[in-house]
Amino acid sequence: MTVDTPPNGAEEMTELLRAWGAGDAAASEALARLVYAELRRQARRALRREGREGDGHTLQPTALVHEAWLRLDVQHGARWESRAQFFAVAAQMMRRVLVDHARGHRALKRGGGATQITLGALESESAATSARREAPLDAVDLIALDEALARLATLDPQKARLVELRYFAGLSIPEAAEALGVSTATVGREWMVARMWLRRELDR
Asked: Is 75 exposed, middle or buried (0-12, 13-18, 19+ CB in 10 A)?
């Protein structure tokens, strides 16, 4: 599993999440220490696909984690149930941070300078388990992807969340299945359909 909380850590994390949701400041600090390493791994994966890590861009993994955490920390009253749910929401926050930065970058470029990302690694993993190999979704505009995901969410929220988990959190199919509370077979089928839908939308 990517989310490598120690065996006893799953229960500890669930307790901390519930205390954090109830406004316990000490739980917030303890939770931050517990999840920081995994959040940073998520951030590194997302930035690597975006081609930003190590290129001198101002948004580095640590900054992405901090910005995402600030957005998570204001989720007062949230009903946290599991670490899978937490990391799914963290993926959503990272998506928002990355898209906000991409929009700011584009504004500075006066409408140009689209932020390109690659989904090639995820596509390769899926192609290896599929009898039908399809062209990968490489070098797509992050903002275009975000807008396409928003459209997909109106049609099928679970497929949109699946893409978010796979790209922004870098979760494997079994990990995404755990986060969504469905079978790996269901995730595999939905991932294939979501990829095909996104390819059509992004090729327009």
From this structure: middle
